[in-house]
Specification:
The complex is a heterodimer of chains A (87) and B (376).
Chain A (H helix, E strand, L loop, with lengths): L2 E3 L13 E3 L5 H11 L3 H5 L10 E5 L2 E3 L11 E6 L5
Parallel strand pairs in A: 1-5
Antiparallel strand pairs in A: 1-2, 3-4, 3-5
Chain B lengths: L1 E8 L2 E7 L6 E7 L4 E7 L7 E6 L5 E6 L7 E2 L18 E7 L8 E6 L2 E5 L7 E2 L1 H4 L4 H5 L11 E7 L7 E6 L2 E5 L7 E2 L24 E6 L6 E6 L2 E6 L20 E6 L7 E5 L17 E4 L7 E3 L17 E3 L7 E4 L5 E4 L7 E4 L5 E9 L1
Antiparallel strand pairs in B: 1-2, 1-27, 2-3, 4-5, 5-6, 6-7, 8-9, 9-10, 10-11, 12-13, 13-14, 14-15, 16-17, 17-18, 19-20, 20-21, 21-22, 23-24, 24-25, 25-26
Classes of the chains: A alpha+beta (87), B mainly beta (376).
Chain lengths: 87, 376
């Protein structure tokens, strides 16, 4: 099960945890499982058309991904990052 | 519990509580520090429920709800959002405006978003659904305009009005886009902009008026005389008395050196001919500051025929703040209390209908909205 690193802006959903586990073979599936565990989480990260929000960046295994259909393995970490928007 | 002010700012919200002497105040907050809080509104039907339109800079938009007067908060289960996969691929950037439904519909709320969308909740703000009669109207893309027709941080759908005499009768306004009316609970809409100036567009070559595309900043229905609407527009101050379909530019009666540009307009809770505005500088580069750096409220008591300057208590010079469209309100006391928040984080009050003002709190973040309510 992939490990997800949660930014400070989203830890209100994860009871303060900075790392959580979520199941899924794609970023979309992992986000769906995160939303099941932490209701409301997914819509703060992606919009109603499944686009990653403008000021959010997602890395899988250290590589930045641009869409939620990106694959992820159980051995990989997914980092959700609040972009440096605004300095 | 007494009168409270709900102060939503660019970096969280605060609640100010008035003492029994109407002069002492206490401040509670911040809550959701760091989040852009556009509107915080008490439900007048139960006087316990509060809804908050909020957006964290990195995260998506949402609505939070409290049913215990602001002690605890819970996020909407289904925040306002456009349908997945719709052809125009609109995505809500922020929820800008909240309006409680009619007194006979205790769980109904409406909200307006950026980009411009209209949404409704039938369960007190827990789940939101698009009002397709507006959002998907075949002409809606023309009504809302292009990227050049928006406020700097995105177009706004605001001033959602539920006629207190008829739950099916709605108004909404857009910056830009104009004011629209529905008499069937939002299924169909008609523009209501005749008489409103559009000095940012050339006259139509056929000599007729534009039906839409105007820039109302704030529209309010009088709480007693429901036929009277007040509008502060990008191009002046207006009123209309329905069923007339033509607005009258009463701002022409403002002093020429002040002009009639501003964001907010606040009707008196009982007297339909009394209202207050906070003019801003709309000349040259449009600084949107107090004209000349000298803040003043202007009041009319005769339906806009004449206006009186009210500036007792304000700085006499070098004060360059202004008041946003949701940031001024009136209570129902006698005499009426007025309250407003400024772009430099000051919260001001008058307990004598604007004859004098006093500073309640300073050094808050940029204030987006101030609403008032009598918490049960």
């Amino acid at each position: 099960m992939p490990r997800v690193v949660v930014p400070s802006q989203l830890r209100g959903y994860t009871a303060g945890k900075s790392e959580v586990d979520a199941a899924g073979a794609t970023v979309a599936a992992v986000l769906a499982d995160l939303d099941r565990q932490f209701p409301g989480f997914r819509f703060r990260v992606i919009d109603e058309h499944d686009r990653i929000r403008r000021h959010i960046i997602i890395f899988v295994g250290g590589d930045r991904v641009d869409a939620v259909d990106a694959a992820i393995t159980d051995a990989q970490e997914m980092h959700i990052v609040g972009a440096l928007s605004g300095g | 519990m007494g009168l409270q002010l709900y102060v939503a700012t660019r970096k969280g919200f605060w609640i100010a509580k008035q003492g029994t002497d109407r002069r002492t105040w206490s401040l509670r907050g911040p809550t959701y520090l760091g989040q852009q809080c556009h509107h915080l509104v008490l439900d007048p039907r139960d006087r316990r429920t509060l809804l908050l339109a909020s957006r964290q800079w990195h995260l998506g938009p949402t609505v939070f709800r409290s049913t215990d007067g602001g002690e605890t908060w819970k996020e909407a289960a289904t925040p306002p959002q456009f349908p997945k996969g719709e052809p125009r691929e609109r995505a809500v950037d922020h929820v800008f405006w909240l309006t409680p439904g009619h007194a006979s519909e205790p769980n109904v709320w409406y909200c307006g978003t950026s980009p411009k969308g209209l949404f409704r909740s039938d369960d007190g703000g827990v789940n939101w659904a698009p009002i397709t009669g507006f959002n998907d109207h075949p002409e809606q893309h023309k009504w809302v305009g292009s990227d050049k027709d928006q406020t700097p941080d995105g177009g706004k759908l605001h001033s959602i009005i539920v006629d207190h005499r008829d739950p099916k009768h709605l108004y909404l306004s857009m910056s830009g886009g104009g004011t629209f009316e529905s008499t069937d609970r939002g299924d169909t809409w008609s523009p209501l902009n005749l008489g409103v100036d559009m000095d940012f567009a050339p006259p139509k070559t056929d000599g007729t008026e534009y039906e839409f595309g105007h820039d109302p900043h704030h529209v309010m229905q009088h709480p007693v005389n429901g036929d009277r609407l007040w509008m502060q527009n990008h191009c002046g101050i207006y009123k209309i008395d329905r069923p007339s379909n033509r607005w009258s530019r009463i701002g022409k009666n403002m002093p020429k050196e002040i002009g009639d540009v501003g964001f907010s307009i606040t009707p008196h809770p009982r007297d339909a001919n009394t209202a207050w505005v906070f003019p801003m500088d709309g000349t040259g580069d449009w600084p949107r500051t107090s004209p000349g750096g000298k803040p003043a409220v202007y009041m009319t008591r005769d339906g806009g025929d004449t206006w009186q300057r009210q500036d007792v208590g304000f700085p006499r010079e070098q004060a360059w703040w202004t008041v946003k469209r949701q940031a001024m309100c009136a209570d129902t006391n006698t005499p009426v209390g007025l309250y407003f928040g400024t772009t430099n984080g000051e919260l001001w009050a008058s307990d004598d209908e604007g004859a004098s003002f006093h500073l309640l709190f300073r050094d808050l973040p940029h204030i987006f909205s101030v609403t008032c309510g009598d918490m049960a």
